[in-house]
Amino acid sequence: MAKKRWSDLSGTQRAATMVGSAAQFALAAAAWSDLANRPAKLVNGKKAVWAVIIAVNFAGPISYFLLGRRGRR
């Protein structure tokens, strides 16, 4: 399959790409912010490892929110 250029995409495809990108960046920013403000004892594993994992598309931030945090007690 040939690579598509931005100019080859329809308006709907461009909009979907922009919305998906914005959602991904917002989710990652929220996860990094939470990680930075959460005490290390409330994180499952090392904070540095989670910081790298969060950078992996949608899967990283979602994994952090589901698996990386311990409840605030």
Describe the structure.
The chain is elongated, with a radius of gyration of 16 Å. Helix content is 62%, strand content 0%. By secondary structure, the chain is mostly helical. Helix 1 runs antiparallel to helix 2 and helix 2 (47-54) runs antiparallel to helix 3 (59-68). The chain has one domain (14-68). The chain has 3 helices and no strands. The protein starts with 10 loop residues before the first helix and ends in a 5-residue tail after the last helix. The mean pLDDT is 93.
Largest sheet, strands/sense/barrel = none
What's the helical proportion of residues?
55-70%
Give the N-terminus to C-terminus distance in angstroms: 51 Å
Protein structure class: mainly alpha
Low-pLDDT ranges: none
Order of helices and strands: HHH
Number of domains: 1
Please tally the helical runs, counting DSSP H or I stretches of 4 or more residues.
Answer: 3
Binned strand content: under 5%
Give the averaged pLDDT, no decimals.
93
Could you give the count of β-strands? 0
